Amino acid sequence: MQFGRLIVPFALLACSSLHAQEKETKRKGPGPEDLPTSSLISRPGPSFRVPQAEVGIHTKVIVFGDQRFTDPENTKVTNPKVRRLLVQKIAQEHPDAILMNGDIPYSGDVENDYAVYKTETETWRNEHLHVYPALGNHEFHGDPQQALDHWWSAFPEMRDRRWYSVELGKAIYTIALDSDTSLLKGSDQLNWLNTQLTSLPKTTRFVFISLHHPPVADFQTRINVSHNPRPNEIALREYLEVLAPQIKAKIIVSAGHIHNYERFTQKGVTFLVSGGGAASPVEVERAPDDLYQDKGFPNYHFVEFVLNGDTLEAKMYRLADANAEAPTWEAKDSFKVRAK
Fold first, then answer.
1. In terms of DSSP bridges, do strands 301-308 and 269-274 run parallel, antiparallel, or are they unpaired?
2. Crossing angle, helix 111-120 and helix 144-154, to 10 degrees?
């Protein structure tokens, strides 16, 4: 099969504007969706490459989101103790890549929030870990262009990118998307994504897609209803479900925004909500198709994937008691994603 010639119909879900979708973010003036995207770096092929020799045979990838790094005195919107415990635990796991699903700072227009991120994650730099962030809605608090400039200053290798890809060894490919801008048919971002997925390296067996707003989640009728999947990400889900059977790699989608953990499999695609990075936890009403039904709460957590031959073995590690003097980590969910 010649993937460069693969033609896939885009999702046909109409949506007049992203303004109406992000109702929980009230802003005067233009939003992040109004920033031009045509000048962004959107070349074919991987934006970055990590050689196979650097990741080893059992490649390890950790995903988690919604950390909200900010002044440690602010314990209302995030739990600074949990935030630091997660950073430390992840460093101890020595992953080959950390995929962050957005809302890394509490307020993207506050440079000090990124300074706190830098201070609290110093151990990651000491361990030379690869960190790949996706943009969330909190990254765009305040003036969106100024906030984006702060993000680019915090992650200078991402300068002039709002979406990008990484070839992580031979078997794994990761893609970070920006759900604050359009993923609808004809958008710059979806056109780029389609090129990425239809021209993967021949050795790729698994693709991780990280973004902030979830394409699939438990539909809420009482709690946090503003965080239900939006048309923008539903269009992405429909596109991926059409594409998935036609490409050789299995797709894992990791999102945040909902401060909890959820897991779904739809038409061969694994969809995760991993928003337990320390932001104020939110309970969810779980539907039967959610493959995680544990009633424990809160779910401060990360999800770890380890490549074992043709299988990704995954575990969700949850902090058992945020108030305990000594942290205890529980493997509360485990599943496998097998290559085609």
1. unpaired
2. 20
